Structures are given as C-alpha cells and as structure tokens.
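Support request, please re-run this one:
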Amino acid sequence: MDAFFASVEQRDNPDLRGRPIVVGGGGRRGVVAAASYEARVFGCRAAQSTAEARRLCPHVIVVRPRMERYAAVSRAVFSILESVTPVVEPLSIDEAFLDVTGSLALFGSGEAMAARVRDRIRAELHLTASVGVAPNKFLAKLASDLRKPDALVVIRPDEVQSVLDPLPVARVFGVGPAAEARLHALGLRTLGQVRACDPKVLAARLGALGPHVYELAHGRDARPVEGGRDARGIGHEQTFAQDLREPDEALGALLDLLEHAGRRLRRAGLRARTITLKLRFPPYETITRARTLAAPSSRTDTLWEAVRGLFDDWQREDGFTPLRLLGVRLSRFSPERDEQGSLFASRDRAGLDAAADEIADRFGARSITRARTLSRPAHPRGQWGPEA
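Re-run finished. Output below.
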C-alpha cells in the first residue's frame, strides 16, 4: 500500500487531502510511522522523529495513529488479495507476497492479476497500491518499490540483470549501513559490481551475509511464498529514554521483551516458527534480523536461544552500537502441542514457563522475571500489537 496510514487518514478526512501530513507520536521521542507524499517532498519519512519532520516541514500536520482503523482497512485489502489466490504471505499490515501460479488459468497473467488487485483497491477502498510482478520474492518486492506510488512494475526473466545491475547495493534486503560501507570499501557500489565479484571475497568481508548478497545480485531467490497462515504476529518493542550503551543492558531488555511476547504466545495456545529481532540506532536507522526455528516452539529458552543468536551475530558482524529501540516479534504460528526434546529437560522447561505465566497472570507481569532482565531500563514505551 502507498503511505498506508497517511493515505487512510487523508481518505477519511477531506481536510487533510493534498496537504503534508505525518502519522506518529508527538513529544521529544515521537516517531513518524508514515508520511504522506506531500510531506515526503520536504524530506519527511517513516522512522524519523516527529521533531525532525516539523523542522523539515514547519506546516506539516501531525496525526495520531488509529491502529484499529488501519487494521480494519488491512483486512479489506487482504480480502481482495485472497480473491485472486489463496497463497498470500503477509509481510506486515499493508504488504504481502502472492504466489499466483495456480491462478493463471483462471485470471490470466501475473500482470493481469496485479492490475485486477490495484483496480479493486482503488474502486472499493479509495486507496492506491503499488504492485511488483516477478519470478521470485526478492524481485517482486524490488519491483513494487521502483516507481511508487500507484505503480505496476513487471520484471520479466530476461530483464532481471538489466534492472538489477545499475541499482545501489543498499537495495538488497539485509544490507544496512555497516554492510554497505564494507561493500563500498571493496569498490562495490552497484549490484552489477557485486555480481562480478568473487563470492569468496564477499563471504570473507560480510560473513554469512556474503552468499545472500551474491545470490540476490544475480536475481536468485529460492524462498517460496508461504501462504495459508495468520497475518498477525505477536511481539513487543521498547524505545528507551536514554540509548543503551552496554550489551548486557541490551540483552536484559531483550529478554524482558521476549518474556512478554512468549507469555502472549502461550496464552493464545500457539507456537512460533520465526522470530524477528528489531534494532534501531541513533538517529533513526533501523534493521531487522529473522531466524526460522527447526520446529515451532513456545518455550522461552528455545526462543531466547534464537533471538540471542541473532543479537550475537549482529554484534559480531557490525560491532555493538548504542541502541534507542529494541523489538522482538514472533510469527508463523501453529497450534500448541507437546514439543519434542529430552524426556526431562523439555517438561521441566515447559513447566517453568507455565508456572511463571500463572504467577504473572495472578500478580502482574513484573511479579516474576529472569535475573538477566533486572538490568533492563524501566518503563517500556510502545509495542507491536497482534495486528502489526
């Protein structure tokens, strides 16, 4: 969707149409969740502070978020997507991958289905969407971003390299500022240059990220579209009044967030297969890292091992940087059932979680916690709710 939150606000309030608006919180730590295209002309953008948006555009209108409203519109959008294929993999409240292979005989080409989706969203919801059509997920996502807003971009198999080669390396998902600087140090500024590079050199400089970047620079992405699952995730995030400057303090806060998310997961009777770590550095640069478990789990120790591994990988590759925000998100759910593991350890750990959950439910979330979380900063601000 194009500037989703801001577009919904402009649609619902005619006085906001054609005017620069940002959706977000006020105050010194307020952050922009979405900026209208009128505001983007002045440099306003998501993940920027509201104060910075006001500095760039003194006449910008700041609108408080209405998450329930956006969630309702999101459900209507996904209903339209599911009208062309049941294989829909949500990325967020306003974005998804669709595998339309099985619908070609019914609706025609991928481009025809993309046009159908865009036309229905415009006619029924009075909003615009940008759609990318391509042979795989990376290319489709890239295509959807190339000519926003209100665009339909097709990347055909014989066009892949001509599209990719001129693009900057930062276009690859997972290439943040640190990885981009390392690629630039190798003289690699475009995907065409990355494609011509020795993959062993990339692996030496970027670690596990090297093969990933090399494959995507060639337009290769074997990930399937994983449809038929709940669009929602369970998670929490915290913005800190003072940036975290020590790894131990960050790990304490991270475990606290995970405990909250895990408690909600178990309360819903679910297990999660994917865990996502969110990190934000001053001023407002944000990265995410995700890991898929060998088997879905709701156990705190299993989930903590995964998210701690993501944190350690980031710290090893990029070095610890002061953090202004941490977040954990659990997704790809399946119903809860007994998990495989050693006969005694598995039951003991599951029993520990069950006992801790019961105490927290009876006496409050802060009534019981692991010792590591005692170093966490107080007063978390904000969270990813179930619709995020």
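Residues 54 and 165 are 37 Å apart (CA to CA). The longest strand covers residues 285-297.
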